[in-house]
Specification:
This protein has 263 residues and is an alpha+beta fold. Helix content is 33%, strand content 26%. The strands form three sheets. The protein has a five-stranded antiparallel beta sheet, with helices on both faces.
Length: 263
């Protein structure tokens, strides 16, 4: 049985349920809200798909402390959700990353990306062209909120490589929509399925391993003829990459979880 830990049933979770039906796999939804922390969970392998990363970390830690398996682990979820921590792990693993400083400091670059350490879908992310722009963007921000200032790499085009069980099962290239510099599919970016080259595959797998994740969506930036890992998404959406690549990512995930159950 596949156990899906959820707080909200999004399109990806519906895709997983439909894939389970096609594969003849029994799937159980486990609600993260109201999780009983005073008793062990049932034995098994749990695929964490909660929208709230904070609740996801708690659920994963409780699952693991109960002696069961959480995919991803609570440590991977905590590291991936904090972009500053994730970049530190990536750098320590020898993976190229954009030059990054904790705000309000700025790296040596011509343009900057200012973004919170916690967040997704490109929210609160801004482009700055000077130190004064950075300071203006950060004015009024809660002093306890961690922001990063990164060098801008390329024109915003990136590659999303989807890793399952340390192999890239699907990938797409994302280009910013007209008038924007962000490539997020959720913001209208143009996406196209691709067969990534060996260097991209190697970077994506190494980045996933660096966070001790078992599946992830890895964002790879392109600039100056080089690749850089921008982010590692440890509860990644996959509807866009599935549609663009033609790969049933939900099935790939379920097959991987089922293999873990046999071990």
């Amino acid at each position: 049985m596949v156990k899906l830990v959820v707080d909200l049933l999004k399109e990806e979770e519906r895709m997983l349920l439909k894939a389970a039906e096609r594969l003849g796999v029994k799937a159980e939804l486990v609600k993260v809200d109201g999780l009983d922390l005073s008793t062990d969970v049932d034995e098994g392998v749990y695929l964490i798909r909660a929208l709230s990363h904070n609740r996801a970390v708690v659920a994963a830690a409780h699952i693991e402390s109960s002696g069961s398996i959480s995919i991803n682990s609570w440590r991977a979820l905590a590291a991936g959700w904090n972009k500053a921590v994730a970049l530190s792990f990536l750098r320590a693993s020898g993976i190229p990353i954009p030059r990054t400083r904790l705000a309000p400091a700025i790296p040596n670059a011509e343009e900057f990306i200012v973004k919170p350490a916690f967040g997704s879908w490109g929210r609160k992310v801004a482009l700055a062209k000077s130190k004064e722009d950075v300071e203006a963007l950060l004015k009024g921000v809660d002093p306890d909120e961690v922001y990063l200032v990164q060098e801008r790499i390329g024109d915003g085009t990136d590659i999303r490589a989807f890793v399952v069980g340390y192999r890239v099962v699907a990938a797409m290239i994302r280009r910013p929509p007209p008038g924007d510099w962000r490539s997020n599919a959720a913001r209208g970016g143009h996406v196209e399925g691709i067969k990534p080259d060996a260097e991209v595959e190697d970077l994506a797998i190494k980045a996933t391993r660096a966070l001790n994740a078992e599946y992830a969506g890895v964002d790879i930036l392109m600039g100056n003829g080089e690749y850089y890992v921008g982010e590692v998404n440890v509860i990644p959406e996959f509807k866009a990459v599935s549609k663009a690549s033609g790969v049933d990512v939900a099935e790939e995930l379920l097959k991987y979880v089922k293999e873990l159950e046999k071990k």
